[in-house]
Amino acid sequence: MLAVVKIAGQQFKVQAGQSLYVPHLQGNTGDKVEFSDVLLVDNSGTISVGSDVKATVKAEIISALVQGEKVIAFKMKRRKGFRKKHGHRTHYTRIKIESIA
């Protein structure tokens, strides 16, 4: 069974038993999370899309806070002595899909 789920404004293709990194979700390790914004479900060849979908995706939080790679935004104007350096690390949550029902 396959589903396309909208989590925090992004679309993810998920299957039962799969683990993936999603934008940071509120909750602690071991908490159960439910996503009801399912866009597509493929149940052994039977595809339902849009308002026909009546499924929810249940998942468990494996790691509450995972930091991504550091991203540096560096601005400089030559011959002016102007230099700015900004950086950030995006926060993610690792979840494991338990079921698509």
Description of the structure:
With 101 residues, the protein is an all-beta fold. The protein has one domain (2-100). The chain has strands at residues 2-7, 10-15, 19-23, 32-35, 38-43, 46-49, 57-77, 82-100. It is elongated and about 65 Å long.
State the share of residues found in helices, binned by percent: under 10%
Indicate the proportion of strand residues: over 45%
How many domains?
1
Strand numbers in spatial order across the main sheet: 2-1-5-6
The secondary-structure class comes to: mainly beta
The number of distinct helices, counting runs of at least 4 residues, comes to 0
First-last Cα distance:
10 Å
Query: Unreliable segments (pLDDT under 50, ≥5 consecutive)?
Result: none
Overall pLDDT: 96
Care to count the β-strands?
8
Order of helices and strands: EEEEEEEE
User: Major sheet: size, sense and barrel closure?
Assistant: 4 strands, antiparallel
Rg on CA atoms, Å: 19 Å
What is the general shape?
Answer: elongated
